[in-house]
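Following up on my earlier message about MD3. Here are the inputs again, as you asked, copied directly from the submission form:
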Amino acid sequence: MSLRSQNKVARIMIEGFQHLEGYLDLDVQRRCLEMVHGVLEKAPLYRPRMPRSGKLFSILMSNCGDLGWVSDKDGGYRYQSFHPETREPWPAIPLAFLEIWGKVADWPTPPEACLINSYSEGTKLGSHVDADEPEKYAPVVSVSLGDDAVFHVGGSNRADPKQRLILKSGDVVVLGGAARRAYHGIDQVVPGTSDLLPGGGRINLTLRRVTVA
Ligand code: MD3
Ligand code: FE
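Thanks, got it. Here's what our run produced:
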């Protein structure tokens, strides 16, 4: 039984949190996925490591844009202009993604970074706050493609109560205001819930401003 059909999922009420359910139709989702594959040909997915411990993430990542978010044992979390393994500059952000930002972000400048998170069955993203961007006020825009994900969001302290919701393929989430500083993560990806990705799994794009304009 899904969280939604159990009716345990109330609408998330956090200032600045906007869940645009089914925002992208199937055609646009397919087009976005093609763009992702184009980016990944030039900037392959890699598995980042946690700062200090060097423990591997369970999800795979890549980026497009002037800056990309990376993490490794010694350098920690940061933005840089090139792929950590190929050392090549990140590919440009595809127009289709810039258009989504233009429609939903309500921000005067385009995103500088697009992080691509790739989830296979059994992977997750632990609770964290996105705090590596000098630009603290621009929203983050998230695009979900592929299998359903169980997403949680809490408050600005790790111990704050968490609310859960399902992110589906084609959903767009806009994180502005207080929501931008909230703890959040992906608990699990639900296998067999979407046909979009040939092998199953989920891809999430996050579009961000990094530098203060
Ligand atoms: C809430 N990604 O890349 S997207 C991340 O599905 C990240 O891959 C998740 O958390 C994913 O940092 C969640 C939705 C999202 C993105 C940024 C947020 C939710 C957020 C920033 C603040 C609060
Ligand atoms: Fe995050």
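One observation from looking it over: Residues 115, 117, 125, 130, 140, 142, 149, 153, 173, 175, 179-180, 182, 184, 186, 204, 206 surround MD3 (ligand 1) (CB under 6 Å). Hope that helps, and feel free to reply on this thread.
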